[in-house]
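User: Second chain of the day. Same drill as before.
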Amino acid sequence: MGDGEPRVPTAIAVTSADLALPPQDERTLPAAVLQDVDRRPLESVLAELQTLVDQCGHVIVVCSQAVPASVERRLHTVRALLETDRIALFRPPLPPLGIAVLARQLRQLASCDLSPGVLASAGRLLTHYIHAGALLGSVARLDHVPVGLKAHARSWVPGSQFGVVAHPVPQLVRIGPEAALAGPEFGTWLLVAKGQHPTDWVTGSLAPSWHVQGLRETALPAESATWWGTGRLTEFCAYLPDLSVLYQLVTSVRRGTCHWCGIDVIGDRCVFCSATPPVYDDGGAGGGGRDRALAPRRDPALGRRRERRALTG
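Assistant: Same format as last time:
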């Protein structure tokens, strides 16, 4: 922590209790659970978010793209009515279990000396290091990963199983003796959420092939069946568990300042106000150097050498 008065940790919120995973370590902060925001009275949700902002200064809401549209509308409505830029709504392209893992990583980092803007930006960075997928009994209604006609037809064959990775690179294989999915090239733990499907292939084949350093199980998020298009699934997610590694990854990226709201950020978009860096006119071959220097770096990814150093310790 830096000098001065103690910093109040930024609140990390999720939209259902099953996305609030148990702490990864003793420093992991609890999640704020915004339960049933589209069903409760608007005044109740307003009061809850206002209290969080008053207590924590900033709130980062991490939610799945599988949440009903009414949930997203309610969150945007509350943010607008509170007239605040201290609430960030973050919906990364991850399945529900990946959302839960990412939210926990942010809860770990919230205990560190990171400003709210950098912490919110860290969510976009850390998304790249999450490998999320599922073992499915059918891909007939799967629309987040490309499904070929052959795989679609095989979904109707009794007993068929499919291994799918939705992020970071879509993959789909029919489970058989030679079935394999490409995994992370760095050390991870594997979190497995069992639904209406056996976990044997995930724990017996996938985990060893991905060389995971540890394996844990959790309950299947309620949104998973909607996201994957079937209730016959086991969801899995490979992730970086260590706070020291997460912190080094985030702090290795150059920081900038949002030109609109003035908050510190990493990458090319402020998660709180959604502003992107302005595009400057070079003014010809001889001009524009100063303008380009003022613009934040657009690529939030780490250099490969620094990334390798962070991941290998």
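Residues 1-5, 283-304 have pLDDT under 50 and may be disordered.

User: Great, on to the next one.
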